[in-house]
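User: Good morning. I'm curious how adenosine-5'-diphosphate would be positioned relative to this chain. Could you predict the structure with it bound?
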Amino acid sequence: MKLKILEVLSQITSPGLKGDIVSQKLVSDIIIKDGRVIFSITAPEGLGKEMAYVRDQAEQRIAKLDGVERVLIALTAEAAPAAPKTIPRLKKRNQERPVGPDMRPKAGAIPGIKSVVAVASGKGGVGKSTAAVNLALALHGLGLKVGLLDADIYGPSLPRLMDLKDRPAIENDRIIPLEKHGIKLMSMGLLMEEDNPVIWRGPMIVSALMQMVREVEWGQLDILVLDMPPGTGDAQLTMAQQVPLAGAVIVSTPQDLALIDARKGLKMFTSVDVPIMGIIENMSYFLCPKCGETSHIFGHGGAEREARKLNVPFLGAIPLHMDIRHYSDEGTPIVVAKPESEHAKIFKSIALKVATKLNPDTEEEE
Ligand code: ADP
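Assistant: Good morning! Here's the predicted structure, ligand included:
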């Protein structure tokens, strides 16, 4: 099947390219799962429009192949030369680096979980949890088995965002995660008393989080999305180091201040050798719900420019929109509440980029 797809793709070219998209190395690894074909095409700088046409052509031609039910192709902007095209596999990384930079043993892979992806931000209030929840749901929409762990012990928001009321059961000393909209969910907020705020000390935070990663009965997962506590303190650094992360997604608003914080977040992950999967710009522009007009109230594009400067991929821009907030507050994130909306589509395209970078399907082939 892969060969047939490559054959089709190697017949597609575009003005501005020196050859077909396969020989020009613009096609990522191809994931094939249950009739779904998922991959990304890189658009060289300045060829965005032409490559959108190429993507449509590729989608139409692959859809005609036998055994193909759905084709999902993400168009990604050209990654800077230093950025890795695919994220190194967990197992390999761990074999190569048995100890972390501070000489403590590096975390081993978690049985049953193929990849853990951290969603992080340099500071609170930028929409990290909103992005994590919608990203997890959009990844599930691609046919992947997904878990979401809200590790934000300072302000766990998952119970509110997904309207969770039950407490998780405990069986054989293992916590059974809740399940909603097809994904497995766990949050410290589900274990804490609402009116009884817990005061956490650093080591307690880390051990509680490690317990949630390792002692929750996640079962078989393609991806565990980890909603990190905001900021870049010791607890975050230790988590970044002790959880076997396949990569990190950084959420930032376009304001400069947030970008400075975001840069700190990037540094934290790279200092412990975790690849950056990309930056999401949230509250990027204001989309007027009445007139549909777009206003760049915070100076839109800051995160994209910054991503380019820092040689990390830009994953997408999410507008500031009442619907996103409204559905979050109601406990049904927008990807589920309004799957056909523009906002949901943006989250889906980000999920596609993350999935193609992880390529969970090829894990077992080696
Ligand atoms: P964080 O996890 O970074 O602290 P949250 O995801 O909890 O941030 O978001 C903070 C607040 O902003 C929430 O009320 C959320 O509904 C709202 N919000 C987040 N993203 C958007 C958006 N794109 N448009 C409108 N409101 C948003």
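Residues 121, 124-130, 157, 230, 282-283, 318, 320-321, 324-325, 328 surround adenosine-5'-diphosphate (CB under 6 Å). Residues 222 and 360 are 6 Å apart (CA to CA).
Let me know if you'd like a different ligand tried.
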